[in-house]
Amino acid sequence: MDSKGKHAHIVKKTAKALGFDFCGITKAEFLEEEAPRLEAWLNSNYHGKMAYMANHFDKRLDPTKLVDGAKSVVSLIYNYYPGEKLPENGSDIKLAKYAYGKDYHFVIKDKLKTFLEILREEIGEIAGRAFVDSAPVMERQWAQKAGLGWTGKNSLLLNKHMGSFFFLAELILDVDLQADTPMAKDYCGTCTRCMDACPTEAIIQPEVVDASRCISYLTIELKEEIPDEFKGKMENWAFGCDICQDVCPWNRFAKPHNEPLFEPHPELKDMEWEEMTQETFAKVFQKSAVKRTKWEGLKRNLRFLEEK
């Protein structure tokens, strides 16, 4: 086995030891096929008020602009599917499953720091950066190139063994690693369940989502009032939305995660949403992704859900 293969083996062994479900490797190069797609998506204003999506266009497509001398992109999958859904206590208020426990940015970033430390011990001096939904990295495209799955009609990465309830993370490294074979086949076929189920009709065409119509965008990214046209269409999602994933046949393969930090805060299981105070919000969501909406944002969402 040459050094590229040997080092790739060390990377995959380390990924498994740190609890990642899948690990794939691809060459760090310009994403030529993605450039026109990204440009068309931005030109259609499908990013809504997320102005940052239009920033760093070149960096999104070229990993060597994020890490000098980048040679490999390591894509990682980390499961967050809960063992049981949160009870809805008659109020039917819903949170996206990824937000049940501690904010994934912190949980996975800590693992990635350890990952880099182990690689430097075993391989030698490596320059690299760790990413988890925190920089202009086209994570789904890299994961597909690394053979971890294909892009579903809802634009999420789908994996044959576990569906889509997982986080993606990347290490961009300046070391040559043996690359994996890209996932060339689309296993969605003629299924359109995700498109048919979206109550706000955010999935414009297969693999193209108008984010400005997506419930996740409306409840998290949008900082102003939610447009009236979406009244009665939110299906009681107060933070994020899982509809297109819940209906996806591939998610019948989802298995509960093994991450204690993703378990819900005890008080979240009995949350009285209408009575929730700012103090309760601060305590329950102190280390949660829900904190991103801030107290005022979550109250806005809950108010909007009442105005059916």
From TrEMBL:
Cob(II)alamin binds at residues 60, 133, 151, 154, 157, 168, 216, 241-242. It catalyses: epoxyqueuosine(34) in tRNA + AH2 = queuosine(34) in tRNA + A + H2O. Residues 179-208 form the 4Fe-4S ferredoxin-type domain. The active site is at residue 133. Transmembrane segments: none annotated. It is found in: Cytoplasm. Keywords: 4Fe-4S, Cobalamin, Cobalt, Cytoplasm, Iron, Iron-sulfur, Metal-binding, Oxidoreductase, Queuosine biosynthesis, tRNA processing. InterPro entries: 4Fe4S_Fe-S-bd, 4Fe4S_Fe_S_CS, QueG, QueG_DUF1730. Pathway: tRNA modification; tRNA-queuosine biosynthesis. Belongs to the QueG family. Monomer. This is Epoxyqueuosine reductase.
